[in-house]
């Protein structure tokens, strides 16, 4: 069953069926027990009535067991012999003996004393009915040719002649059986109807609840077919899980649209950036092929270096986008900064770069990628500085902070986040050869984030730009 509605309807129906069957069985058991107890009470009353007559000295043949058809009676002595039975009792079971014929002779107790005791003025003792010996049992009895089930009560008594008798009286269980059968038949008849109603209601309710989900599915299928990430799935007015699913889906589509847009812009910008040095290099080679004396070898080398740098940047960004994990090498940031500054000896402002650092500031990651971050920050500061660049490395709240500042024009507050986007350059009037492709800061931030750190831009104290790299300290 692949349908959620079908599974929900089937599950609800099974649960209700199990619950109803369990409740029905409990009701039948309680009803049977109550009716059986009621029949037992009737049998006890009939047995005590006969026992009372025997205790008063009534002869066996003169016993009046009440309604003999409704309450069959059997009286046995202490040896199990039948001494009296009710009228028309033809067969019996469940009382300890199946005999229904009294065994002669059966002496009847006399209510009067012996003639020898006529002068005795005392009142003779009467028999007693024992309240401690009361037993119940189920059995059958045949009265006047009709056999039925009975609940028998057994009451023991002792006559004034010191004879112990047991009175077995029964009450019919037909009413109990009829009531139980009636309730059971009603339950069996109503159970399928109730289950059909439960299944139908569950089907309709689930269908209505899942209707927005089907709308979301259709819209997603349409988006997949059209590849139009600008479309959104419908959001229901409810505040349930389906509405939250629709909102989350739309948020995911928004993020996906932005990601695809960035990828497309990246491809377009990369193509544009590659076109310029390739065209320049081709032009120089074509001129050199036609006029060897006019070949600009330094220019061709510069264009080739620029192509190589741009290709390396694009390759690194591709690896970062693919989720490449940084290494686990221990890197001394102070030594790394000094090394990157020393490599720039001979540049136009390299002698004006000042470095302040603390020892023992280690981080964990890729030394090559971290060197790329520091190098990109130094290159950016060198391009925009007027006279000096300052670099500091210090510990701060469990991390290591690297700050690179310059005395240039600085970064406007509204552009301090945009400059980390790919192929973004604020100095559009600057030549491409001097300004680069606009990937350095984007690479630096991506590497910092993948190392568990941050890279932000701010204002230096003298009005220039300040770039702050914060990385978690090792240990």
Please give a structural write-up.
The two termini are 55 Å apart. Strands 2-1-6-5-4-3 form a six-stranded antiparallel beta sheet. A five-stranded mixed beta sheet has the order 8-10-11-13-12. It folds into three domains: 1-105 and 126-228, no CATH class; 230-324, Helix Hairpins (Orthogonal Bundle); 326-472, 2-Layer Sandwich (Heat Shock Protein 90), CATH 3.30.565.10. It is rod-shaped, with a radius of gyration of 53 Å. The chain contains eight helices and 13 strands. The longest helix has 53 residues, at 174-226. By secondary structure, it is α+β, with helices and mostly antiparallel strands. Strand 5 (146-158) and strand 6 form a beta hairpin.
Short structural summary:
By secondary structure, the chain is an alpha+beta fold. The chain has helices at 4-55, 174-226, 241-290, 297-321, 333-342, 367-384, 432-435, 440-450; strands at 73-77, 82-85, 89-93, 128-143, 146-158, 164-172, 329-332, 353-357, 362-365, 389-396, 399-406, 454-459, 465-472. The radius of gyration is 53 Å and the shape is rod-shaped.
Q: Summarize the biggest pleated sheet.
A: 6 strands, antiparallel
**Rg over CA atoms:** 53 Å
Q: How far apart lie the N and C ends?
A: 55 Å
Spatial order of the strands forming the largest sheet? 2-1-6-5-4-3
Helix content: 40-55%
In terms of DSSP E residues, the strand content is 15-25%
Q: Care to count the β-strands? A: 13
Mean pLDDT: 82
Q: How many helices?
A: 8
One letter per element, helices H and strands E, the order comes to HEEEEEEHHHEHEEHEEHHEE
Total domains, how many?
Answer: 3
Determine the structural class based on helices, strands and strand pairing: alpha+beta
Quaternary class: single chain
Spans where pLDDT lies below 50 across 5 or more residues: 111-124, 428-433
Anisotropy-based shape:
rod-shaped
